[in-house]
Amino acid sequence: QSAVSVPRDFEGCSTLRKYFGQLHYLQSRIPMGAEQEAAVPIAWTEIFSGKTVTHEDIKYEQACVLYNLGALHSMLGAMDKRVSEECAAGAFTYLRDHFPHSYSVDMSHQILNLNINLMLGQAQECLLEKSMLDNRKSFLVARISAQVVDYYKEACRALENSETASLLGKIQKDWKKLVQMKIYYFAAVAHLHMGKQAEEQQKFGERVIYFQSALDKLNEAIKLAKGQPETVQEALRFTMDVIGGKYNSAKKDNDFIYHEAVPALDTLQSVKGAPLVKALPVNPTDPAVTGPDIFAKLVPMAAHEASSLYSEEKAKLLRDAMAKIEAKNEVLDQFMDSMQLDPETVDNLDMYSHIPPILMEKCAALSVRPDTVKNLVQSMQVLSGVFTDVEASLKEIQDLLEEDEAQERKLQELLGKVPPPQGSPAGLAEVSRECSKYLEVHEKASFTNTELHKAMNLHIGNLRLLSGPLERVRAALPAPALTEDDKQVLQNLKRILGKVQEMRDQRMSLEQQLREMIQKDDITTSLVTTDRSEMKKLFEEQLKKYDQIKVYLEQNLAAQENVLKALTDANVKYAAVRKALAEVEHKWNTTVQTLVASYEAYEDLMKKSQEGKDFYTDLEGKAAKLLEKARAACQAAEANRQQILEKELKKQPPPRPTAPKPALQTKPPELEAGGMDAGALPPLGSLVLPELPEELRSL
């Protein structure tokens, strides 16, 4: 009901469009077409004859609504200011191209063509007026005006058709006369501006003929304008003043100044029209115009089947794209693996400009313990002192035992036999066993102590470095020395690696966009309102929405070959720089690890140093006791030897007389001093015995 009596404004246009769209949704679900089960009689009044025309076809309702939409647009266009080139031709064009022409004579092909060209011609007029107000170039204005002429010529041909003439009656002659007047008028405007262009190009002969032609055509328009409103007559008079003045001035200048030959008009290039207006498209399924489909829940099985077919087309498109992407990605991954180029570490120069966090942490820890190195040195010095004391004690015990052993050998050699067992002290054997045991322990501990000192000497310098200023720590870390050419090689490689990553990211993004587009692409609603014979065409049209992203993907994939070639060239130049950087990085890492290890070894060194001190302190006490025991045992052994020697001397027979009788033996000085007892015998080494047996004289 609202569509039958619409208000004559843009709200009325909106109502007609919405009703037309809902009819389109309806006829795709309910069989209301001609000779279909749900067809109902639909009646409208023909505009020119006033007759009521009835058809049992839902499409007739749509056609009439569409005709009224075009008519209402044309009325609003006539009421509007002439500054807009939008026109009503869209509704008449859609009606001509999509609906039968047999419903009524006012919907015949010729009438619709007449309406379309009248609408387009008037829209082009609006654009022409706007172009002249904007002072566009003369040649462009001439072409726009020539297109107005072309549209009106098409309208005039439709008016001259016999069917149109019989349908329109008297108004046919009026319309034809007005259209012909406009044809001449706008032809005159076109030639006026062609004359202006000739004037700009200083072609004064052409200028004259164009202005003359414009004047002739304007005179024809004036003849056809009899009976037109005063506004039209006034416009024609004004145009005559302009063109007449231009022609007279141009002819006078050429006759008296330029003297150029005036060519014939038919020898000049004709002005080709420039169609700059177009019919507003009509889309019966545009939800922004029709509003929500009120029959949306009614989806025929055929539409579901068609939707499945369309889904398969989308899946095929995705499979093709993914096959290409995966093939290129595989080549790219293999290439990058063979190159062993990590964009994150290919240029690691930044790491040399600062101390790594783990090292900073160790420096900070040592900064609050300023006596670290001093404590370690002192601890090791104490350990060395105790070690030396133990070593001296054990050496002295060894010396005592060796001296005692030497004395025993001398005694045996003196007496020529082994001393009786009962005369040897048992303590020396025990001292010897314990000394051997302590020496073995000391030897093992000595190796450990040496290793501990080596470790301390290894780490002490690093600990001093870590305890010092950060500048010294940074200076101690290796750093690469690159030339400007080396830096340029690095920058170039980084740039190309960045391109590789950019290519990867773009490819992933395009793939994701394609997947999302396919996921969201549901044309079931369009399939409902599309004829089965048009399905293939609809699929093709709908799949065109993927063309742009497919082009982007193809460009991305095609770029890979060039990018990898550039990367290969850059990598060749990078080889020498890479080797140098790898060596410096290895040294840098080794230095950092060594410094960290020195810090972590500090506590262990202190602990082992303390354990060493405790061990050697204990060993020192035992060695001291053993030394005392050794001294006592050695003294006892010496006393024992003296007793043995004394006994042996007492067993010696008196000396035998010889001739001549020797002088009386005198006592040694030691005996003369007061006698000699067993307890005061001198050491064997200094003892001089009288009348020694033959076997002892060599001693």
TrEMBL record:
GO cellular component annotations of the record: endosome
Location of this chain's protein in the cell: Cytoplasm; Endosome
Region listing for Disordered, in residue ranges: 645-699
Residue ranges of every copy of the BRO1 domain listed in the record: 1-332
Keyword Cytoplasm in record: yes
Keyword line: Coiled coil, Cytoplasm, Endosome
GO biological-process terms attached to the record: early endosome to late endosome transport; endocytic recycling; protein transport to vacuole involved in ubiquitin-dependent protein catabolic process via the multivesicular body sorting pathway
Name used for this protein in its record: PTN23 phosphatase
Organism: Corythaixoides concolor
